[in-house]
Design a protein that fits this description.
2 domains, alpha+beta, 182 residues, 7 helices, 44% helix, 4-stranded mixed sheet
């Protein structure tokens, strides 16, 4: 992190910007908070990595006061209800990797429909979501927890719907892995 600490960068931001950033952090709006810090600090030399550290420090500062975004439900009943409410006939369930600087790697569970052809996100499975879903005794082997939870929930849903399940890269995060073909 450049020549300044996250605390020093924070103190250089105007009071109104700091208040806005804390508001976003308390709403668990991580990316918006980073965008505000970056925009306000860029002229002073603050870069993206510095902005991320500033926001991470604000998350640490506020701790349990943050209204965390709820986990996506991964139980079969919830996933089946979401799939049943989609427009179109579900023809497959697919798990795909994605990632960002805040969550690292995560898996998105999709329902693939025909008539109309579309893909519908059913659940976003972050590390913490996966660990809570799998529990302490979750059998994941050497897999990333998000992959293990997506594989478990996706297969159960696909079996329930009598459609194929596709997860091109369950053992290695890869957001460019081949997608399901019709």
């Amino acid at each position: 992190m450049g020549d300044k600490t996250a605390t020093q960068w924070w103190e250089l931001l105007p009071a109104g910007v700091r208040q806005q950033v804390d508001g976003y952090v308390l709403q668990d709006a991580h990316m918006q908070a980073i965008r505000v810090v970056l925009a306000a600090g860029r002229a002073r030399g603050l870069g993206l990595t510095d902005a991320q550290y500033v926001v991470a420090e604000r998350y640490d500062h506020h701790g349990d006061a943050i209204a965390r975004t709820p986990d996506s439900p991964l139980d079969l009943e919830s996933l089946a209800a979401r799939a049943a409410g989609l427009h179109g006939r579900v023809v497959a369930v697919e798990a795909v990797w994605d990632g960002d600087t805040f969550h690292d790697w995560f898996v998105v569970l999709l329902a693939i429909t025909a008539d109309p052809d579309a893909e519908h996100p059913l659940a976003t499975i972050y590390w913490g979501t996966a660990v809570r879903h799998l529990g302490d005794t979750g059998n994941r082997g050497t897999r990333h927890p998000s992959a293990a939870a997506a594989d478990q929930a996706g297969r159960a849903l696909a079996d329930h719907l009598c459609v194929p399940f596709h997860f091109a890269s369950p053992d290695t995060p890869d957001d460019e892995a081949p997608r399901r073909r019709s």
